[in-house]
Amino acid sequence: MFQNKAILKNIALIYQAGKVRLGFLIMACTLAGIAVSPTSSLSALEIFALAVYVLVASSTSGAFNQWYERDIDAVMDRTKDRPFVTKELEPTNTWNFWLVIISTLALYATYQVSNLEAMLYLFAGIFTYGIVYTVWLKRRTWMNIVIGGLSGSFAILVGSAATGNTLSPAPLILSVVLFLWTPPHFWALAISFKDEYAKADIPMLPVVYGDRVTSQAIFWHTLVLVVLSLSLFFYGMSWIYLLFAVLGGGYFLYCSILLLKEQSKALARKTFFSSIIHLGLLLLGAMFDAMIFA
After folding, report:
1. Rounded to an integer, what distance in angstroms lies between the CA atom of residue 175 and that of residue 179?
2. Whose CA is closest to 60, among 89, 116, 17?
3. Buried b vs exposed e over 123-158: b needs ≥16 C-beta within 10 Å?
4. Among the four 37, 209, 218, 274, which has the fewest Cβ within 10 Å?
5. Is there a contact between 91 and 67 (Cβ–Cβ < 8 Å)?
6. Using CA atoms, how far apart are residues 11 and 21, in angstroms rounded to an integer?
7. Mind listing the pLDDT tens digit for each residue in 271-287?
8. Secondary structure of the chain in the HEC alphabet?
9. How far apart are CA 127 and CA 157, in angstroms?
10. pLDDT tops 90 at residue 10
């Protein structure tokens, strides 16, 4: 009984360290990339396998992110209980060895179930988040999350590449939408935790330029990405996708306008959660559209 509890605890710690919830979001982006592609020869089993491989690969970069950032995570109240900070998972270099092995296996499996192009996009995504964002940019520039947002865009392209439709308008537009979505999503969170980011010496946009400039950047990013997301209706998506995109995008844009008028932490949190609702509805709309009109 006690052994089972220990196993469950270790699984929970690894789940937390690997940012598996973020991994599920990346996986959903890949599935949406497949859904908006005009054609696909992938079987249901191949799609399921690809989704699992993307989840595993993205979780390895999430785990490396937490391993590498354990020093600044210890400074921030929001992250001080992460397992590499508390040393419930001992932060040794052995972790990185296994993360490289696991991600390599996931990349090879992606190649086997789809093609080389999809594998390269997946590699680009995990490298962007794990190395470009985490190691090179996060502690150096407020542009960290702007460039780091490419990891979500690459996830869309993994799905479209697996179907052989990388250059089709719909997946390309959706990848740009993901690129534009990531900064306002994290900037809204950064306004809520500006003091903590400042204490950890992380140059997030609100820390460097203040809440007013950040709220303006959030609004303009949101406006452009919502308009772009609606444009997919003219590239093969039906009224089902459009309905989801209008509901989610309208709410996200509404919250960003409220934040533009008043830069409070409460409205920043509301904008942050509205961005999650928007992306969730956008991805679900794309997948429901594909399933109903397949």
Report:
1. 6
2. 17
3. bbbbbbbbebbbeebbeeebebbbbbbbbbbbbbbb
4. 209
5. yes
6. 14
7. 999 999 999 999 999 99
8. CHHHHHHHHHHHHHHHHCCHHHHHHHHHHHHHHHHCCCCCCCCHHHHHHHHHHHHHHHHHHHHHHHHHCHHHHCCCCCCCCCHHHHCCCCCCCHHHHHHHHHHHHHHHHHHHHCCHHHHHHHHHHHHHHHHHHHHHHCCCCCCHHHHHCHHHHHHHHHHHHHCCCCCCHHHHHHHHHHHHHHHHHHHHHHHHCHHHHHHCCCCCHHHHHCHHHHHHHHHHHHHHHHHHHHHHHHHCCCHHHHHHHHHHHHHHHHHHHHHHHCCCHHHHHHHHHHHHHHHHHHHHHHHHHHHHCC
9. 15
10. no
